[in-house]
Amino acid sequence: MKLVIIGGGPGGYTAAIRAAQLGMEVTLVEEDKNLGGTCLNRGCIPTKIFAESAARRRQLQDDAEFGIELEGAVKFNAEKMQERKNSVVRRLAMGVSGLLKKNGVRVVNARGRLLGEGKVEAGEEILEADRILLATGSRVFVPPVFPADGEKIVTSDDILQLRHVPESLIVVGSGAVGMEFACVYAALGAKVSVVEMLPRLLPLEDEEVSAEMLRLMRKAGFSIYLQAKITEVKIENGRVSAYGENLGAEGRIEAEMLLAAVGRRANLQDLGLENAGLEINARGRLEVNKYMQTAAENIYAIGDIIPGPQLAHMAAAEGILAVEHMTGLPVKELNFANSPAATYSHPEVASVGLTQRQAEEAGLAVKIGKFPFAALGKAAVGGHTDGFVKIVAEAESGRILGAHIIGCGACDLIGEASLAVENGLTLEEVKNAIHPHPGLAEAIAESVHHALGTPLNFLPPPPRRSRR
């Protein structure tokens, strides 16, 4: 069976490798000379490289408490950070290329376009396929109110190319992208303001997590504007001025630079969808069934171009499901609600499954368990005592419905919670798993104990009395 995949990001190249393992003849068409898509080249990996530099600088500032005294000022070299970012990205992209080659996947460096009747145009070549997989990803969305120029008014693509740290930065949008860059540049020395149109930071997270992040960011010196709407952006005297609603007493804030981090749009333009009888829905995505098939049954689509979370790990899972379905293997439908989310802010935030509000709005009686990192030995050792783990479970059965973490190592700890939610594990089953001491994962076990009414290493405060 011949498979042509358009798009070489995490979804596309993962699907290509799995398809090759299943005996398919695979051709991967990627326009960018570097494989890995947005995630590797302009997203997940570069931002985490920046976050690592920021974390190391932050740690050096706190080292005196640990008995390490540095003489003189700690200098930061933005050029070196850029060089390291480019080196790591280049090495990982070469790794992806090597994996594809070893698995017998042919890579065509060209723009792919559907021609209909199982044909794909790839540059000057016409490819014939039994099955086609669309994995073209997404691009930065910039509303007209932000006249991005790549210098003063920038996107997440632009800011990854900066070779200096701005003295001040306005970040518009408090989703994962906005929060990560806000925390990075604050740690590197910028005065950061965060503007969010909705009533809380990280609006997709559990409300208690959002509230804790707001508290910690204000404590750290961030300026936070919630329920704020920017209506005009100007360059005045070499600085960016943002005007609008709920932007302080004057309705105006200014900084050296503004980052618009307000979302992404699916890359579906000029893809030849009309030749295959495919239409884009009202939200700018392609509709698929539970097997990732589009309205044309020989064409599948995954990742940022279909409804659901625009996450690299979700695209990879969808790609595996799609090619396994193509070859007739039994597949399990993906539950988008069980896809973990991770924000590499400071502190980190990660979640999986239902929030407390979502569970209650679904009519479920719930048990809640919480455990603060301040009561955890490993967190105290490292000086990372901000935040908590929160577990949401069904009251009667004890089945774990969701987990929400803000604190050190949250994006790694969420893996255990994801396993529990996906497999319907109960509080008792997780409690019975022995967690190593001292370790951050103890926070999950302790939150489970709290939900069961048997807290061990933390005495929860009594519930607040009603003011009625």
What does this structure look like?
It is a single chain. The chain has 468 residues and is α/β, with parallel strands linked by helices. The protein folds into three domains: 2-140 and 265-336, FAD/NAD(P)-binding domain, CATH 3.50.50; 153-262, FAD/NAD(P)-binding domain; 347-451, Enolase-like, domain 1. Helices cover 31% and strands 23% of the residues. The protein has helices spanning 10-21, 37-42, 44-62, 78-102, 156-159, 176-187, 207-219, 312-326, 356-361, 377-382, 410-422, 427-431, 442-451, and strands at 2-6, 25-29, 106-108, 112-116, 119-122, 125-128, 131-134, 138-140, 153-154, 168-172, 191-195, 223-225, 229-236, 239-245, 252-255, 257-260, 264-266, 299-301, 341-343, 349-353, 366-372, 387-394, 400-407. The strands form six sheets. Strands 3-2-1-7-18 form a five-stranded parallel beta sheet, with helices on one face. Strands 9-16-10-11-12 form a five-stranded parallel beta sheet. Strands 19-20-23-22-21 form a five-stranded antiparallel beta sheet, sandwiched between helices. Strand 4 and strand 5 form a beta hairpin. The chain starts with a strand and ends in a 17-residue tail after the last helix. The relative contact order is 0.11.
